[in-house]
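Final report, closing paragraph on structural work. Over the funding period we assembled a curated collection of sequence-structure pairs, and we close with a single example.
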Amino acid sequence: MENKNISKKHQNELISNEMQELISYRPHWIIRKGNVLFFLILALLLASTYLIKYPDIIKGSMRITATNAPKLLIAKTECKLEKLLVGNEEEVTQGQPLVFLQSTALHNQVMQLKNWIYEIEPYVIRDSLEILLIKPLPVFNQLGEIQNAYQDFQNTLIETLQILANGYYQQKRRSLLRDELFLKSIQNNNIQQQQLLKEDYELQQFEYKANESLAKDKVIAPIELNQNKSKVIVKEQGLWQMDAQLITDNIAMQNKKKEVLELQKFIIDQQQKFYSELFNLKSKIEAWVQQYIIVAPENGKVLFTSFLEENQLLSTGQELFYVQPKESNYYGQLMVSQGGLGKIKIGQRVLVRLESYPSSEFGYITGEIKYISNISTAKDSFLIKVDFPKGLQTNYNKKIIFRNNLSAQAEVMTDNRKLFDRFLGQLKDIAKR
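Its predicted structure, as stored:
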């Protein structure tokens, strides 16, 4: 027993201190269970590849358009901005003046004349010209190049007022109609007299025939028969005179009707002349407004394209405003090459990054495919229509201001496959090689 203890002690003396520390050291749990941890992490990674999905992306160029796009207003001629009537982002209504451009006419007078025409026009179209008595023409003397047309219309209006209810021509027409009634009454009276003369003539002729029979029987003298015959002739002459009088009455009646018809024709011609002068003045005003007044084409919000101020000189074609309608429908025209076209389907999600609005600052717009063309374009690409359910609002909740032909880059999210399937597909491709 003592020999064994001596032997152990001897062995301990033979092992160095460093070796003893190494033998007695207990490794960290990561080292002791490292293999298990490694296989566990690998299993988690494999499981994640089965859960994580990643879509295929097909890229293409896009232009954004609108069915009710904001309307661009420009300066049509080189002129001075005389008066600015609205502010940026102000709500306006259709036809509302936005800018007065320099002109020889007073804009307010032209607009008042225009409003007067639009007020009476519905009545004029219905031939209710009495509105001219209720709403008389305002007097203007600074209409510039419209002044001559206004003066011609004013003269025609004065003549037209005479054909209205209490005008000269209406009074004359009523007088002619009264004369026609008088002539008709006289004619009826003469017809009654003619009837009486006929009856008197028939009685006189009956008496003559009776006397003629008596004269043949020698009852009365021939001279008495001649007296009766003379009376018959007088009655017959009265009838002829009455016939002539009735013919004269008919002629007078026809002449009076002719006067009424001629007067009626003059009234109609005057109405037509008034219509012509009114619409001629209206067209000249509209042409003037298009040249010297910029008006809102529809209801919406005014958006300035640059800083504007009064007395500023504008150049021809200079962009001034956009009028943003309250409701605009936007869509994108996406051009995609044949590569990967078969993966694109209606309803797929599209991410749109506008070139004018960097996605790092403004974000991207989300769209949805609504239509895929079956015919390629001249550049061997296919047209795809993309709708924007949220309008032009980005994922950063920023509203994009629409401008014509906004260009963008689009990414179509196609097959949303699992990472496991993708790795498996890659392994199959490698195996086939």
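The longest strand covers residues 53-66. The two ends are 74 Å apart (CA to CA). We thank the funder for supporting this effort.
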